[in-house]
């Protein structure tokens, strides 16, 4: 149980174009989804938190107009990198959590990640 | 202070040995402490987690030791195996006004030599 998928697993796009990454919770309904960014040999940095049906909350320093997040349903969140540039190349990872009781609310289930390369 | 400090940065252990990774925090608002294992090109996977009202938790070869007064916690991997070679992240969970958040340590690259 608690499987999170991401699509695509890797993508190459040209500078100036936009790319959309999907995150799905396959066997549970996620009240909250998170988007992280990870550079090589570095830790995960939280970009934003999204709750189904409401606007995402972005971490300080993350451009909300550049990284558009939509959490349209309890099983799907999307991250769109708009006008991508080479410095946006990174490993993007989503996670999902569900509130059943206090313990479960703390667990985040991570997707396999999406490798974005902007040329 | 929303930081979790993790050490060492990298670790080499012989097969069968004990791997120990340490983490420390300042903010007493953190109230749940998971450890994640990540293989190259994959997302992190939850290994084991502990609450601050428990001093130790063991699951198979993995043990978390927690020292609330010192604000430190550690992961012990007993009988380390080459398949344990991965990057390990400690994390701490905090409830904020705008939502809940996991704060990650910098990570430890573990290599188990056969």
How would you characterize the overall build of this protein?
The complex is a heterodimer of chains A (119) and B (114). Chain A is mostly beta strands. Chain A is built from 1 helix and 11 strands, in the order βββββββββαββ. In chain A, the strands form 2 sheets. In chain A, strands 2, 4, 5, 6, 9, 10 and 11 form a 7-stranded mixed beta sheet that branches. In chain A, strand 4 (32-38) and strand 5 form a beta hairpin. Chain A is globular. Chain A starts with a strand and ends with a strand. In chain A, 33% of the residues are buried. The model of chain A has no long low-confidence stretch (mean pLDDT 90). Chain B is mostly beta strands and 114 residues long. Chain B has no helices and 11 strands. In chain B, strands 2, 4, 5, 9, 10 and 11 form a 6-stranded mixed beta sheet that branches. Chain B has a 5-stranded antiparallel beta sheet with strand order 1-3-8-7-6, with no helix packed on it. In chain B, strand 4 (33-38) and strand 5 (45-50) form a beta hairpin. The mean pLDDT of chain B is 94. The A-B interface holds A 4, 6, 32, 34, 41-46, 49, 51, 57, 91, 93, 95, 97, 105-113, 115 and B 32, 34, 36, 41-46, 49, 89, 93, 98-107, 109.
